[in-house]
Design a protein that fits this description.
Layout (H helix, E strand, L loop, with lengths): L1 E7 L5 H12 L4 E7 L1 H10 L4 H6 L3 E3 L17 E4 L4 H8 L14
Parallel strand pairs: 1-2, 1-4, 2-3
Length: 110
């Protein structure tokens, strides 16, 4: 069984992440591990007809964004990789600069 982590960040275009989850859900040999940011939850509600619960049901496993003890946080958790779809500029910048923060200072968006 192949494992793939899917993360939905707060960027516009949530339907791309949802469609990706739908396709992966139809594949028998792929196990999906989903992370949804709080900003992504807001964007999903604003941009799509899906509920957050419907989106989460597309994944095999779902993790809270603040769960630092999640299985996927371990270096021993083997995966094929991770998709961040859609990715906000903040998230892409954080990854490229090795910056990690899920806390909002002055703006509740990513």
């Amino acid at each position: 069984m192949k494992r793939l982590i899917v993360a939905l960040s707060g960027a516009t275009g949530q339907i791309y992440g949802i469609r990706t989850l739908e396709i992966l859900n139809s594949l028998r040999d792929v196990e999906t591990h989903l992370i949804v940011t709080k900003a992504a939850e807001m964007t999903i509600e604003q941009e799509t007809n899906y509920t957050i619960e419907e989106v989460k049901e597309l994944a095999d496993f779902v993790y809270d964004i603040d769960d630092v003890g999640a299985r996927i946080a371990s270096g021993s958790f083997k995966t094929e990789g991770m998709l961040i779809i859609p990715s906000s500029i903040k998230t892409a910048s954080a990854i490229s600069n090795s910056y990690n923060s899920n806390h909002y200072i002055s703006c509740p968006y990513e």
